[in-house]
Amino acid sequence: MRFTLRIWRQPGPRAAGRLETYEVDGVTGDMSFLEMLDLLNERLTAEGAEPVAFDHDCREGICGACGVMINGAAHGPNRATTTCQLHMREFDPRRPITVEPWRARPFPVLRDLVVDRSALDRIIESGGYVTAPTGSAPDANALPVPRADAEAAFTAAACIGCGACVAACPNGSAALFTAAKVTHLGLLPQGQAERPTRARRMVAAQDALGFGGCSQTGECTAACPKEIPLTTIARLNRDTLYPHR
Do domains 3-111 and 117-241 have the same CATH topology? Predict the structure, then answer.
């Protein structure tokens, strides 16, 4: 198959960016989206042109590094699918594909499709941790946790920190990311020591970093490749306002 790509090219953080058009031949339906970009970059390198810069690492939907906007959707058209898990059989070769970086003020573009997502790390540093000594890994069932709490904690812990929720949100809010970290720690016994202060510190950090406020539009959950539910934001709000309950 032959695809037409419109890709955002930006040589540096302070440089002006633009969409450039490329034709990519030899694409198969079983190729992932990143493998298709690899094919393009091999051709550009052979021609002596600058390859397209994009983030990637595990290519297994775990690390959260690969996120880009594909035809205006974070990670592309499929739900619960990261960019690296998206296959080219999902696209019509007769229609061009537009590829852009995350668009959010706290995620400045470094080069082409690569953005600086370290703001998410700053949120974690403000309170997304457990400082209480917990020893080595306990035996199964050594610490009783209600099943509903355990399942909710596991669901929230699936967050890979890709930033799709921020990119998809019309307000550029990091509420779903922050809520996932607050939820998976706050539901477990080991996370109770910091629970009264965790949510407030993390919300204060995200506000200071320039993320927008949450208006419950739900775009974050629709874009989340791990399908973190909107109910985690309700828990974040509760722990922020009523941390001792």
Answer: no
Two structure tokens written together for 177:
């990311």
Q: What is the pLDDT of residues 124-137, one digit of tens each?
A: 999 999 887 767 77
127 and 196 in contact (C-beta within 8 Å)? no
pLDDT in tens, 179-191: 999 999 999 988 9
pLDDT digits (tens, 9 = 90+) for 207-226: 999 999 999 999 999 999 99
175-to-80, 130, 211 alpha-carbon distances in Å = 18, 20, 9
Q: What is the pLDDT of residue 176?
A: 98
Q: Which CATH class is domain 117-241?
A: mainly alpha
Per-residue tokens: 175: 């509420």
- How is the chain split into domains, by residue range? 3-111, 117-241
Cβ-in-10-Å burial (0-12, 13-18, 19+) of 49 comes to exposed
Name the helix (H) or strand (E) containing 205.
Answer: helix 195-208
Mean of the pLDDT values across residues 41-69?
97
**Statement: residue 81 has pLDDT above 80:** yes
Nearest to 9 by CA among 47, 42, 39, 37: 37
Question: What DSSP string describes 89-108?
Answer: GGS-TTS-EEEE----TTS-
CA distance 107 to 55: 13
CATH of domain 3-111: 3.10.20.30
